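Late entry, evening session. Most of the bench is empty. Finally got around to the prediction I had been postponing all week. Sequence below, unchanged from the version circulated by S.P.
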Amino acid sequence: MVEAEEMSQRSMDKMAEMTIQLYERLAPKGKPTAREWTVLASFCLLQKIEENWTPVKILSMGTGNRCLSESQLNKRGDIIHDSHAEIIARRSLIRLLYDELRKEGSKAIFEKKDDKYNLKDIYRLGMYISHTPCGDASIFEGPSVEVTLEETEEPEKKKRRVSTDDSTQETTQKRMRGDEPQNWRETGLVRRKPGRGEFTTSMSCSDKIASWSVLGVQGAILSTVMSPLYLSYLVVGDYYHREALDRAINLRVRVEGLPEGYSRRHIRLGHPVVVFQKGKSAATTDAVSSGYAISYMDGGISEVTVAQSGRKMGLTKKNLDSPKHAPSLSKMKLGLMARQAFGCKGETYIEMKRGGVDYRRAKEVLLSSSEFREWNRLPSEHSDFQIKPI
């Protein structure tokens, strides 16, 4: 296990401040109204300055906290399934990395070793989230945090709907222990993101961040040209509970026999003083979560999507199914960027992912461990679409 050095409180605060200031500079489009709230997340580049790992640049950012249910998914790869801020920020980071490789600008923060790009030793990767991640990190003694992330439903209504018989759910997926109402307060379980009376296919943000401590944040496709890009620091705002977060992100990850180049990383945790004023804790009691998601990557490129449909904001009915108008963070668009950036092989998106052989082996090791064995795997047909010029 590899553990990052401690980060000062000043650096934690600066990471939050830089993210919030960048968010505030964005246009109003897609931001919460007066009676709405959202979650904000970012990936930040840190550099050692005067013996402290200090944030120097926000690489990517995302807002949102909604997720499509299984019946809303399609097999074309042209919509965004998971619009939680953490995932939007991560996909924006991947998009940035593709863009950097395409422009060969990656040399600024990466260096090539053994035919793969590696983050230079003078840098570290950090992440800020304005609200504790959904899933295991949100389960601790005190007010229920898991329910606060679910759009507007009251706990009892949610409980009655989720506990209905399987026959009413119209799902092809197996029930997981974490899906059962009697297990909602049990710690250490992997869980799917909450839906509105129907299962989602996406694992919780706690589970996904935990997986990055083994696999890196770069994903399978980038792993063909890049060594694992590991997260060193995680700074969390509202509803921060150190023990629960440490359990969810670090302590339940137990793996052995990883392929060469992969290792388990212990992510350093922290809590900033600064508060995101458009978050849940600062909102009025009758406020609801925003229905939009904003993505941003370094260079000033941003996009707003409708989280309930996974499509770009402002599309006309005529353009809804047009590949040209698919969100930039959709699998289809990211696959096209991968091909343009480094000639990634494979006719389909799933073939591109299969090129990351060691990444897939590392993922199998992780998902074979007792804590992650129930991980929900989306059927391959959802990634079996062609990547072709638009």
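Two things to note before I forget:
Confidence is low (pLDDT under 50) at residues 146-171.
The chain has nine helices and 16 strands.
Will write this up properly tomorrow.
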